[in-house]
Amino acid sequence: xxxxxxxxxxxxxxxxxxxxxxxxxxxxxxxxxxxxxxxxxxxxxxxxxxxxxxxxxxxxxxxxxxxxxxxxxxxxxxxxxxxxxxxxxxxxxxxxxxxxxxxxxxxxxxxxxxxxxxxxxxxxxxxxxxxxxxxxxxxxxxxxxxxxxxxxxxxxxxxxxxxxxxxxxxxxxxxxxxxxxxxxxxxxxxxxxxxxxxxxxxxxxxxxxxxxxxxxxxxxxxxxxxxxxxxxxxxxxxxxxxxxxxxxxxxxxxxxxxxxxxxxxxxxxxxxxxxxxxxxxxxxxxxxxxxxxxxxxxxxxxxxxxxxxxxxxxxxxxxxxxxxxxxxxxxxxxxxxxxxxxx
Length: 343
Ligand SMILES: Cc1cc2nc3c(=O)[nH]c(=O)nc-3n(C[C@H](O)[C@H](O)[C@H](O)COP(=O)(O)OP(=O)(O)OC[C@H]3O[C@@H](n4cnc5c(N)ncnc54)[C@H](O)[C@@H]3O)c2cc1C
Known about the structure:
Layout: E1 3-9, H1 18-33, E2 37-44, H2 48-53, E3 61-66, H3 75-89, E4 93-97, H4 100-112, E5 116-121, E6 123-127, E7 130-137, E8 142-146, E9 153-157, E10 174-176, E11 209-213, H5 228-242, E12 245-248, H6 250-255, E13 281-287, E14 302-309, H7 315-320, E15 323-326, H8 329-342
This protein binds flavin-adenine dinucleotide.
């Protein structure tokens, strides 16, 4: 019988963030489909608030490693805490959210415990008493189902790939697990966080809408002129009003490197597709993009897809969009901004 462990870290305010609840959803699904038991392990400065927030989940035990040393992400302390919890819980299957904190640590913990680890897990099934996971390969073109006999089996669940567990709150009894830390293990310290200002941060994984901009925004328009400053104002106005996440075609982000007029708030981090990222959002709106079949792969995980393009024969729009507006994106988005401003 498997012991399924949800391993999560708390936030600086002691809460459990959405990625932790998403991994809990997967762990609870496997628990429901199998005869295994479900337990929870939490690591952070404090863990009681997080444990209470999921107290109504089907877990039978809660393990916690807490204290000031576990507030910050640090390989040595995180790995030691994860190892101690896995041992205390006698976990055979471990699900953790693929946050930057766990991505760095779990392979090492698997090695210490003689286990195996899989990354980019996007689903779990159970057949004939054997759990199997799903993950994508070759830039999301091929989906594989993988089963392993080695235990413990660690799995990093892709953030945004699952619904968050909706289990209710209550009062959880957390069994405290002791970790013996050496001074060497505590020598790395986070001395500050540097991040862009809120309005300069255009990549928002939690946004409902992915707004994709293409090279058309910088191309000559019907009057024979380019209108880059106007494009910048329209796009930023839309992002400000909707809090959408900003994606871009490769052509548009590459233009900067080719010395052409380009939108300064875009970087290669915004690029979606085969050689870009694969964001997951409920809705997507592509503007001024032609796109091409392999590069619309990035849209696979967008549920409802719409496009605004001047070209009615555009392969992307014909092949992939649920709704196509054959129209001038400058006019459409300016009008949308006007309506949004009226509230
Ligand atoms: C190895 C390789 C990997 C690649 N990886 C990626 C990738 O990961 N992601 C990616 O995006 N691309 C990728 N590409 C590039 C890809 O093939 C396309 O060239 C690119 O996506 C096209 O970008 P675009 O649609 O912005 O620009 P364009 O092809 O120039 O299209 C611009 C579009 O804007 C429209 N337009 C112009 N003005 C307006 C207006 N006012 N209103 C509405 N529409 C207007 C035009 O009709 C046109 O359809 C890759 C290419 C290669 C070779």
